[in-house]
Amino acid sequence: MKIILLQDVKSLGKKGEIVNVSDGYARNMILPKKLGVEATGKNLNDLKLQNQHAEKVAEENLEAAKELAKDLEDKIVEVKIKSGKDGKTFGSVSTKEIAAAVKEQLGLELDKKKMVVNDGIKALGTYEVPIKLHPKVMGTLRVKVTEQ
């Protein structure tokens, strides 16, 4: 019997795949637990429509990420940090502080986990922080670290 999986099933397949299973396994395991539905004409058409919709949404997300990356190119976010003599800083600027500054100054929600900063920023100056906006799109945000 052909089944369209509604969820990932270990050792069988991933969500949305069409798999061939024995009739008993389908009747006693897959269908009662709502892990899949029988691959009828209507269900195959529904799956096709869902895949088309998912592709459209993914394409829109990619375009939005590209647009955001383009917007971030010419923006500068200022982060203040305490410093002592000779510009020596106390502590470092983390991605959490950068994300808060972006939200406050630019009004954008950026995930701190998507920013790539190794060991924090520990000196005054201007830095370029790479941001993973989408699996296929990397953006760059300029961060200016100044004395408080």
Provide the domain count.
2
| Helix coverage percent | 25-40%
Rg to the nearest angstrom?
24 Å
Please outline the major beta sheet. 3 strands, antiparallel
Q: Structural class of the helix and strand makeup?
A: alpha+beta
The overall pLDDT, averaged over residues, is: 88
Strand percentage:
25-35%
Number of helices: 3
Task: Tell me the strand order in the biggest sheet.
Answer: 2-1-3
**What is the H-and-E element order?**
EEHEHEEHEEE
CATH topology of the largest domain, anyone?
Answer: Ribosomal Protein L9, domain 2
What is the correct CATH architecture of the largest domain? Answer: Roll
Query: Which blocks of ≥5 consecutive residues have pLDDT under 50?
Result: none
CATH class of the largest domain: Alpha Beta
The CATH homologous superfamily of the largest domain is named Ribosomal protein L9, C-terminal domain
The counted number of beta strands is 8
Distance between the termini: 69 Å
Description:
The chain has 148 residues and is α+β, with helices and mostly antiparallel strands. It folds into two domains: 2-64, Ribosomal Protein L9, domain 1 (3-Layer(aba) Sandwich); 65-147, Roll (Ribosomal Protein L9, domain 2). It is 36% helix and 31% strand. It contains three helices and eight strands; from the N terminus they run ββαβαββαβββ. A hairpin with a 2-residue loop joins β7 and β8 (137-147). The longest helix is centred in the middle third of the chain and has 33 residues, at 41-73. The model has no long low-confidence stretch (mean pLDDT 88). It comes from Roseburia yibonii. Residues 1-46 form the Ribosomal protein L9 domain. Residues 44-82 form a coiled coil.
